[in-house]
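Researcher: Re-running this chain for the archive, since the previous output was lost when a drive failed. Same request as before.
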Amino acid sequence: MKFKKQLSLFCGILFITFNVGCKISRNENSLQKIYGADTDYFMGLKSVQQKNTKAAMNHFDKAISNGTKYVSRRSFEQKIKLGNIQQQIEEAKKYLKIYNDDDALLFACRIFFENQEYALVINSTNSTDISTCPNELAKMRLLSMHEKQDSRLSKTTSQWFTDRKISQEHIDFYNEFLKDKLDATQIELIEPVKADKSQLMKLGEYNASIYNALLSCLIKFRIFCSIKDYSSASSFLDTIDEYCIKQNVIPLTKYIVADMGKTFFSTSRQNFQNANYFLDLSNSALAENAEIKFYSLIYAGRIFEKAGTYISKTEQAFTDALNCAPTAEDYDMALWFLLNSKLTDSTEKCIDYLEKYCSTWHNPYYFADFLDNLSLLLFTSAKWKSFSKIYKIIDGYADNASTSKFAYLTGQLIDKGFLQGTEQEKQEAFLKAFELNAGTDVYYRLLAAKELNLSIYEIEKNIFFPATATVAENDYEAEILLQGYADFGFEEFIYPEWSYFYAQNPNAFSIDTISKLSDFLHSCGNAQNNNYYKSLQMISKTANLDNAPLNKKVFELSYPKNFSKEIAAAAKEFEVEEYDILGLIRTESFFNPIVESNKGAQGLTQLMKPTFDECVKKLKLENPDITDPLTNIRVGTYYYSSLVKRLDNSDILALFAYNAGATKVRRWLQTSRIGLGMYKDLPSNLFLETIPIAETRNYGRKVIQSAAIYAWLYYDKNPCDIITEMM
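Model: Regenerated structure tokens:
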């Protein structure tokens, strides 16, 4: 009853505090009335900040006894941290007995490990499955076993490095404790001995003599594969085949099979031989393990496909993998490979297979890139009729954004005369594209709205308040915890806690709760922290779930005007629109000023260093810092404006060039004009669909969508007019 009463207060008030500049606008008495017994947890945190340990302990004890589920648990954790070494250890033992799950074990072992109680870490994790537990927990167990010289260390290390995906914890452990110790890069291949009296060395002795050396090879092999250094990994293939597959010294796992498959796929030209190797493995005694059978078939199919001449063998391997998939995720993976293999086989067969299987897939988002590539193939092969067929096939099965895309393109192709259809069919296709709620992913919805000549009122009514939106069941006690962090001013707790709950259940929080949490974090953002990025991540992840109920505030938080003064000044100086630069920065960096891409692009506008240096010279800047928001925005805006001038004053072509380079854009434009037979009047929206690089296609959609939404939200412009202006 206590919780229901508290929940009704939350439902009626819903995040009563609006914080300005991260300052609390409600006094503690007001918050006490709302949060009741949970108030003690937040007051305990304040006492910790004030270094008043006694008061903090008192507050936490009360919250442990009387608080809601997550508040009580977090209070216990905070109390443990405040004790002396002996108190921490004893309290952590009690905590572990009460909660007794992976999270509790991880927390308790952190306490034990930090206090060098290695035996407690080992004893607490003796029944832990090293192949499924949190990697941090596995790493602490291994380090503790190393400290205590535990005889099980080698076997445990073997399981951790062979029976799960390589993580950062694996790499850190390897670099810190194993790299210099693993001297053997190869094992000399020797024939197995028979365990009979005529042999000088028994089989058991033989296995023991090579186990550690083989483990050394396996660990190096998997580390190389994790960083995609398949050339180095390939030197271990013969050893792994001999001792893992033929002699089974260390048991074969699906991860070893997958890494072998990636290595063969990337480094060897003997495709037929290699594919049959995995096919044989899928039929061996080892394939009694369903996971080994599945991954053997996946890589048999991939390598047959790479060869390019074994269409039926490719199809059979992927189909067999589909039929023996151990999990829903594995099923989707096999189906994804099967469908993609048909892209290079036959368009008609590909669509037939899509029709046959789309109702069976589990995660529709997994297939969005396949559908995008299928669309490109249809454009390049002039299969116009297929667009109408596909959008009707996938309606209800694909993610809404993909269905919206095929519906819009159907209407557009009818309008341009590529596809025969009535005016009614065209309007129905545009209407379908517009009405499908895809969260804040509204690119094709806005294009359709433009074709339907909808008013701002009609657009906002459908997009801000989608009729198809449904309310998921949320975790209200988790909402109480995070709302409390905001109301009591603890910004540093919000994003980590949200990440924790979101990983377990993306629907843990309502869009309304996330809006208010995101708004609070945004108010705490500045050029020196990454709260802008955190705010945007939280709202975007939630808002882009299909059927999330949205409103204008959600869009404003999803498309914030961060660094507005710097952007306004740069846009004015270089005569471009502010909303174009806002859209570019949101797409490039999500407003994280210190982000660096894997290709080396840096800062808010994601400039490569050579491009930055070249622009800096032209602007005559002294001692420029590429990560300084003011400098990065000014240089990025200058670079974008120069591309607009170079590419016939075209915003859309400049954006493509910003991502892929002007030379490529000119070449793609020429190819598309020839392919579509539209030498003078090639619409930019159709040109975008023919760009051969998926990254650039997606980039173009995101920036155009973002610019249109920014102009709509903050500059009192019709988003359809902005799309016309840009395209």
